[in-house]
Write a structure and sequence with these properties.
This protein is of the alpha/beta class. It is about 45% helix and about 15% strand. A hairpin with a 4-residue loop joins strand 5 and strand 6. It is globular.
């Protein structure tokens, strides 16, 4: 039996007291004490896990001031804070056992853009790509780049002094910071910007004694230690930060800028709330040269000559990353720009971009092209080929592939996964190749696999050794390697933290800074935060406060995961494989993943959040001695016992309820299975959880309604008018809404599909008769696989598909309706789903033996045959194949004469994709474009997020508001941009239903538009 689960991680009394006082104050944000919320904020993009006491979401800067002012009371001196943005840190930068101050939810506004002077003022929670979206219409951008730019916040970039591609030209974040507004530990506000030296002694911060003292003390000590600082700090593009003693004064000591100390301080000195940033004009021309090599070493050793070619960016990836990219959804977008070379193996790739004005870029590219052509003819530098592109979409797609490399490495097979812990090393670029060869030898000496990619122009390479943190020996090895890499970077005149900040790696600070300057860092920490309450344990501690509380050996996710038995981990691979990359936090409403996070802003409602909660659920079950696999096979409790448990669920805490709250918010759109770099399949483990949870608790009535729909539809369709009369009248709709929680149920088609096809030859399904057809003639037949939604609610579409098949000179055969099982899987009726799937698979395999193509119209249902059936049935699924309409049509036109070029005035359409379809089959848009072109029409496609329906999700009353919000996020404007409704094409039934519900018209399926084209 599923037991009541308690986590036993209660809040410390002092924190409860503080949070109660904060709630009673004028604080206007949110305070989240849920264990689920704490768990999500216990991890970032690193191997570490520190459980916070609670999460605070300030609504505005005044909330931050109030929170810290309250905490300055003597009784709350032990309460600590850590500011957090996107949570993309690779070394536990924002993790804490205290309180999280999450600025990403509300402090996320672009406050001011001054185009004339070229600066912007933004709140700390603004996401980097969102800022550039706001700047693009003005011809400007914030130039420091990073792979997590679609979820990393400006506050996080400032706190880690982040940088990435193009830093040789564009610099680091600190190079663009004009001013910072932050809240000090006592709740007072500190505004920093460059100060003339003579202004330092004139109380630049008025009556803020703490701020004035900080400025005068730091200015003095950095002047006194200037020679030592200059001598000690490495001469690197990725200069030493945290704290940046070198650049706080300008070269002639006439200007002092405290922002340089805050930039890279990782929240250990103050809570940054607002930043003024210098902006860069967008280049008018961009071109990229993708250079292919016979080895990764060849790519590294060739890089210096590429830098000399005055490239804006030189990025590199090794063969491991390239091979993983080839297996990912991302590859279809870059394959044409990184083509294979006959009889050669590409083991390394340098991506070289030139950006600027047209004549300058073209001249530099022509010069590089001549050099590469000569080197290729002389077989130098291991070159095997190169390609040049000036297409901006192609360039952006290549960067998208490179940015996804971080997550792709997590998709490596086996229990050992490439990990971030010593992966942002920086050395002088001229030393990089030798450094990396020694780095590789170090890892080879430990018999480790690893992936490499990075910014060779700046001497920064991301190296991720593969380790299994569930293996205690590997956990110890992580520390050994970390120590060795720290020593190796010093040997080559570099830094262990060249890009991502230090986080828990502060223990290496003394070796880098030296005893004298490290003492200065401790003093600075003490001046800002004497009681060590802001992100304690990171970078440095105040003088005489003891050693840092966090280090490389601090608590890791693996120490919790290893408490879950291996066989359980194997049964829930999607739960365990989530590596914290956080791509599911992508801010863009035009990205399919993840709609529930986009509409709520709650990280609990995300794939990463759900995977983390499930891990803890599995761990707690093991702690209770429960075998989860046996539990899944057990019978539910009796109805009376489940009723009693459900009644008591408000009284009795059960961690399973927190998991349920997260998982029931999932739309089951499956965008995560395609877009997540490690292919985390939330709907899969969601169904597994539902199956177990409802063995203890009662299911809601709507679950039975959804799960039974396929069984009841044939019966209802036998009396469609009566069924519609009974279900569509206002009284029935009110009862269904109140009693079951279901709204806007569609009408059955009248006339039905059976009535439309009465007497039609396509209804003459007879397996024996089909078997008697000579094999040579079977290619002329097309078997139409029915689905419950189109056959019973949009019968006209199926009818028109049959007409289209006939117009193409082929013979349609409508197969008998067989339940697909998708609705039962979504609701976690896994036993019923398995039986339904086996029954349908057996039937479809018998038909498959005919050798005739089988085609289905609804993407979600067709793809269920390929995914959920394979998962549930394994080998028993059999070899049958059901094609999507576009897949089948592509094969048909491939055998026919090439069509004439599309006329200038040809009919135009715009295709809106289905979430499941666009992520599982990313080339679908191109297939439809080719098909429409063949028939003399132009087809455009638009990239949109989720429409908000997702099967039956949007029909459930508790989801109605979110469903509408999701539609408004991208679909509403996308449809509004199309002049004629007849030009809107939507392949998914649920998406067409949503458009009809909220846009007031029913869009066509592409099949219907094609039939009209042929008939015209």
């Amino acid at each position: 039996m599923l037991p009541l689960l308690s986590h036993k991680q209660t809040l410390e009394p002092i924190y409860l007291d503080y949070l109660d006082a904060l709630e009673q104050s004028e604080f206007e944000g949110e305070i989240d004490k849920r264990y689920s919320a704490r768990l999500i904020q216990a991890t970032d993009n690193s191997v570490y896990q520190f459980l916070p006491q609670a999460v605070i979401y300030p609504l505005h800067q005044q909330d931050v001031e109030l929170a810290l002012t309250l905490a300055s009371q003597p009784k709350y001196k032990s309460v600590t804070f850590s500011a957090r943005g996107g949570g993309t840190g690779t070394n536990g930068q924002s993790l804490t056992h205290g309180l999280i101050l999450d600025v990403s939810r509300h402090l996320n506004q672009v406050l001011e853009i001054n185009v004339k002077q070229g600066w912007a003022r933004v709140q700390a929670g603004v996401i980097k790509d969102a800022l550039n979206d706001a700047l693009r219409p003005h011809g400007l951008f914030f130039s420091p780049d990073l792979s997590t730019s679609n979820r990393a916040t400006i506050g996080g970039m400032v706190n880690t002094d982040a940088s990435g591609a193009g830093s040789l030209v564009y610099g680091k974040t600190s190079d663009h910071v004009l001013g910072v507004t932050s809240v000090l530990v006592d709740g007072s506000v500190l505004s920093t910007q460059p100060l003339a030296a003579e202004a330092i002694d004139n109380q630049p911060h008025g009556d803020n004694a703490l701020a004035n003292n900080i400025v005068s003390q730091i200015a003095a000590v950095c002047q006194q230690k200037r020679d030592t600082i200059i001598e000690r700090f490495p001469k690197l593009n990725r200069f030493l930060t945290g704290y940046d003693l070198k650049h706080v004064w300008n070269n002639d000591l006439t200007q002092f800028d405290l922002s340089r100390i805050l930039t890279g301080s990782e929240g250990t000195l103050a809570v940054i709330t607002e930043v003024k940033l210098n902006l860069t004009p967008l280049p008018t021309t961009r071109m990229m040269v993708n250079i292919k090599y016979d080895s990764f070493e060849s790519a590294l050793r060739h890089a210096p000559s590429l830098v000399k070619a005055q490239a804006t960016v030189v990025e590199t990836v090794d063969s491991k990353v390239l091979n993983l990219a080839r297996e990912d959804i991302i590859w279809h977008s870059v394959a044409d720009e990184i083509k294979s070379v006959p009889n050669k193996v590409i083991e390394g790739l340098n991506m070289v971009e030139f950006a600027g004005d047209d004549s300058d870029v073209n001249a530099k590219v022509a010069s590089l092209e001549a050099m590469l052509t000569e080197q290729l003819s002389q077989q130098q530098y291991g070159l095997v080929g190169f390609q040049i592109t000036g297409d901006r979409n192609s360039i952006n797609n290549i960067y998208g592939m490179r940015k996804k490399a971080v997550g792709l490495l997590g998709a490596t097979k086996g229990s050992r996964k490439p990990l971030a812990f010593a992966e942002d090393t920086a050395v002088p670029p001229e030393n990089l190749a030798d450094f990396i060869m020694e780095f590789r030898a170090l890892l080879d000496g430990h018999n480790l696999q690893y992936g490499m990619f990075g910014h060779v122009d700046a001497g920064v390479l991301h190296v991720r050794p593969a380790l299994d943190m569930c293996d205690q020996a590997d956990e110890k090895l992580l520390k050994v390697i970390s120590d060795q890499v720290a020593a190796l970077t010093l040997k080559y005149g570099g830094l262990m933290w060249g890009e991502h900040g230090k986080g828990v790696r502060g223990e290496y600070g003394p070796d880098v800074f030296g005893e004298e300057l490290y003492a200065v860092l401790e003093q600075i920490k003490g001046w800002f935060d004497p009681d060590n309450r802001l992100n304690p344990g990171k970078l440095v501690a105040p003088p005489h406060s003891g050693p840092l509380m966090f280090n490389v050996d601090s608590a890791k996710r693996g120490s919790f995961d290893r408490q879950i038995p291996v066989q359980t981990r194997d049964a829930f691979p999607d739960v365990m494989n989530c590596n914290g990359n956080g791509l599911c936090f992508n801010y863009s409403s035009y990205s399919p993943m993840c709609p529930s996070f986009k509409v709520t802003g709650d990280r609990v409602q995300s794939p990463k959040g759900r995977a983390g909660l499930m891990r803890e659920w599995l761990r707690l079950l093991e702690a209770e001695g429960v075998d989860v696999e046996q539990l899944a096979k057990s019978k539910p409790l009796g109805w009376m016992q489940r009723t009693q448990n459900t009644i008591n669920n408000q009284r009795d805490y059960d961690y399973s309820h927190e998991v349920m709250e997260s998982l029931k918010g999932c739309l089951a759109c499956k965008a995560c299975t395609g877009q997540c770099p490690v292919k985390v399949d939330v709907p899969k483990f969601r169904a597994q959880f539902f199956n177990i949870y409802y063995k203890r608790y009662l299911r809601p009535a709507k679950d039975y309604l959804v799960a039974g729909i396929e069984d009841s539809l044939p019966l209802m369709a036998s009396i469609p008018k009566l069924t519609n009369l009974a279900s569509q009248n206002p009284l029935s709709q009110w009862v269904i809404k109140k009693a079951i929680g279901y709204v806007d149920a569609p009408k059955l088609s009248v006339p039905t599909l059976k009535q439309r096809l009465d007497g039609h030859v396509s209804r003459g399904y007879d397996l024996e008769a089909l078997c008697a057809i000579p094999e040579a003639d079977r290619s002329q037949y097309v078997l139409v696989v029915q689905d419950p939604f189109n056959s019973f609610y949009d019968a006209g579409l199926v009818y028109r598909f049959i007409q289209l098949i006939e117009k193409l000179g082929l013979k349609p055969v409508l197969l008998p309706f067989k339940p697909n099982g998708k609705p039962t899987h979504i609701k976690g009726f896994l036993d019923k789903f398995a039986k339904t799937a086996q029954d349908s698979a057996d039937f479809l395999n018998r038909v498959h033996a005919l050798g005739m193509p089988m085609v289905g119209l609804d993407p979600a249902l067709v793809l269920c045959y390929r995914d959920e059936y394979k998962e549930a049935l394994g080998q028993r699924r059999g070899p049958f194949e059901v094609k999507l309409a576009n897949e089948w049509l592509s094969s048909v036109i491939a055998t026919r004469a090439e069509a004439a070029p599309v006329a200038h005035d040809a009919p135009q359409y715009t295709w809106f994709s289905h979430c499941t379809e666009s992520t599982a089959k990313p080339n679908t848009a191109n297939e439809w474009k080719t098909i429409f072109s063949h028939f003399g029409a132009k087809l455009n496609s638009v990239n949109l997020g989720c429409c908000g329906m997702a099967g039956t999700y949007g029909h459930e009353l508790e989801n109605l508001e979110r469903s509408k919000q999701l539609f408004d996020m991208s679909w509403q404007s996308g449809i509004a941009d199309i002049a004629e409704h007849s030009q809107v094409l939507v392949s998914g039934y649920s998406c067409r239903s949503q458009v009809k519900r909220f846009a007031g018209f029913k869009p066509q399926h592409p099949i219907e538009a094609l039939l009209k084209l042929i008939n015209s």
